[in-house]
Amino acid sequence: MATKKILGIGNALVDMLTQIPDDNILEQLNLPKGTMQHVDAATSKVVGDQLKVYGSAMAAGGSTANTMSGAARLGVQTGYIGKVGDDELGRFFEQEMVKTGVRPMMPKTVTPTGCAQAVISKDGERTFATYLGAALELSPDDLKPELFDGWDILFVEGYLVFNRPVVDRALAIAKEKGMTVALDMASYNVVEVNRDYMKDILRDYVDIVFANKDEAAAFAGFERPEDNLKELASLCDIAIVKVGAKGSLVQHGNETVTIGPIPAKVIDTTGAGDMWAAGFMAGFVKGEKLEKCAKMGATLAANIIEVLGAKMEDSRWQNIYQTLQQL
């Protein structure tokens, strides 16, 4: 049986990663810790200028792009749809995708490429000031049905729900072509603002949903992650709730799998959820049991939080391959 191929769609963003010595800076910049705030170009520049003193690293980012890169490193054929500017950052983003083995299908525009200022606190928590730029101009017209030909799974990031016409079009094409649909809920404040819409698309289109405990609580409203998991699982085929240092829960029908955490030294939590999804999806397309899929996700997440940003060096990937072989 051929391994299934995954097509991702999301906001193409270049991450500017900055480690800060204390959280007072977040207050000065008016960024609530742990959230993702949309900002305009001018605010993004102000935030970037204020953070320059701490030094920053640049990486191709955006939730789905991270997940597709991670899955590609595990031998899965992945593609990516997102819009970038016809500029230096846009070219950097595309090259980085190709480098990790992802096939980019990226329309260009004159608007600058989107940029996410990822501010990393001492405890590894990250806070985003995101200028969507060109990413926001991804339109239903960009989504030609033939782009979806030959792909088995559509992976959508929750951040995209602010662009509902694009999500509606992508889901409609995916359903028409008989694709499996996976959605990562992205951020609790995204869920809070879009709860009803998310409920509709989960019920009508989504087969696999990824949430962390805060996102699941924002969606279902229960205190216990187990109850929120149940609610999510009532709407789609496979539901996943990640409970941070307590591990993760997966439900498919009447089957519930609980995975303990993998010990890790937290440097930066950027990309933890994205890599969890990458590991899980790589197991899923290879027909692995749910427990193994979840362990693959947990392994990637434990590794990514030990480095700065959402990309890992080859040497770390070699260690990951060895760990996964032993599962």
- Overall average residue pLDDT: 95
CATH homologous superfamily designation: Ribokinase
Question: Uncertain regions: pLDDT < 50 for 5+ in a row?
Answer: none
The overall strand count is 16
Helix content estimate: 25-40%
Q: Quick one: CATH class?
A: Alpha Beta
Seen as an oligomer or otherwise, the chain set is single chain
How many domains make up the coordinates? 1
Structural class call reads alpha/beta
- Overall body shape: globular
How large is the count of helical segments?
A: 12
Rg result: 18 Å
The portion of residues forming beta strands comes to 15-25%
Helix and strand arrangement:
Elements: E1 6-9, E2 13-19, H1 24-28, E3 36-38, H2 41-51, E4 57-61, H3 63-73, E5 78-81, E6 84-85, H4 88-99, E7 102-105, E8 108-109, E9 114-120, E10 126-131, E11 153-157, H5 164-176, E12 180-184, H6 188-193, H7 195-204, E13 208-212, H8 213-220, H9 225-233, E14 238-242, E15 248-252, E16 255-259, H10 272-285, H11 290-304, H12 314-326
Parallel strand pairs: 1-5, 1-11, 2-9, 3-10, 5-7, 6-8, 11-12, 12-13, 13-14
Antiparallel strand pairs: 2-4, 9-10, 14-15, 15-16
Helix pairs in contact: 3-10, 8-9, 10-11, 11-12
Structural write-up:
This protein is α/β, with parallel strands linked by helices. Helix content is 39%, strand content 23%. It is built from twelve helices and 16 strands. The protein has helices at residues 24-28, 41-51, 63-73, 88-99, 164-176, 188-193, 195-204, 213-220, 225-233, 272-285, 290-304, 314-326; strands at residues 6-9, 13-19, 36-38, 57-61, 78-81, 84-85, 102-105, 108-109, 114-120, 126-131, 153-157, 180-184, 208-212, 238-242, 248-252, 255-259. The strands form three sheets. Strands 7-5-1-11-12-13-14-15-16 form a nine-stranded mixed beta sheet, with helices on both faces. A hairpin with a 5-residue loop joins β14 and β15 (248-252). α3 crosses α10 (272-285), α8 (213-220) crosses α9 and α11 packs antiparallel against α12 (314-326). The longest helix has 15 residues, at 290-304. The two termini are 21 Å apart.
